[in-house]
Amino acid sequence: MKLSNKQKQFLKGLAHPLKPIVQLGSNGLTEGVVAEIDNALNFHELIKVKVPTDDREEKSLIMDAIVRETKSEKLQVIGHTLILYRPSEERKIQLPK
């Protein structure tokens, strides 16, 4: 899935008022957390995930793993918050052309 810059900007605008739906705990990225993110993407299409770690390299690895495991698109990372998008079969969000 390849998004144009216009579509990414549109999705970032929609994501701005959202609160993080999933927050990683002290156990880090577990199968349960990945399943929860997957369910949230199926339901909402556009979500925020909070990854509270101070190690930049670890945070980057965790975020890349989330994107890979959920087959979603990473829109933006702001601090500890990752914004993800993956269209569901119902296509709730209509992207601009």
From TrEMBL:
Primary gene name: yhbY
Cited NCBIfam families: RNA_bind_YhbY
GO molecular function: RNA binding
Pfam families: CRS1_YhbY
Record domain CRM: where: 1-97
Species, as recorded: Alteromonas stellipolaris
Protein name: RNA-binding protein
UniProt superkingdom: Bacteria
Keywords: RNA-binding
Cited PROSITE patterns: CRM
Record flagged with keyword RNA-binding: yes
Alphabetical list of InterPro entries matching this protein: RNA-binding_CRM (IPR001890), RNA-binding_domain (IPR051925), RNA-binding_YhbY (IPR017924), YhbY-like_sf (IPR035920)
